[in-house]
Fold:
Amino acid sequence: IIWFHTVYWPAMLMSAGIELPKKLLVHGYLNIGGQKMSKSLGNVIDPIEFVDKYGVDSVRYSLLRCSVFEDSDYSEEILVSRHNSELADKFGNLVSRVSTLAEKYGTEKTKNKLFKELKLKQIEKEMQNFEVDKALNDIFAFIDVCNEYVQSKKPWETHDKKVLYELADSIK
Structure:
């Protein structure tokens, strides 16, 4: 694909009198079981079938978790695993627990000590560099911190409104 993006596409743009791009971004391939997707091998994935079966958000998320600039393995099993372990278990359970507890006990505004664990500048840099997979790794590392915090603080026992505020604020 790099040949097309560096030779053919610029030649077409130049012949049409269109300004050339300032940056060249070339993504890696999605592989199935270590092999590039190929119609002749019969290992092509239809994303529309995955969207119909799992929903657009799960498919979009699982694809964004793939390495952007290097080849990545992808399959239905990877999609399901990312959906279940990351979106449902880690993030979904955190949101469910915190929202239920905050509704039951309320929140009290306080300084959010959890934010020091969020690598926001690094995430912004990764997003500017189109390294979405790395940004998602950092975001989910922060979600892990939040899950550990809720386990250690036990707001279902303490009814600590400040802890619930920190967690709800972190989710936002």
Notes: Helices lie at 2-15, 47-54, 56-64, 76-105, 120-128, 132-153, 155-158, 161-171. The chain has a mean pLDDT of 93.
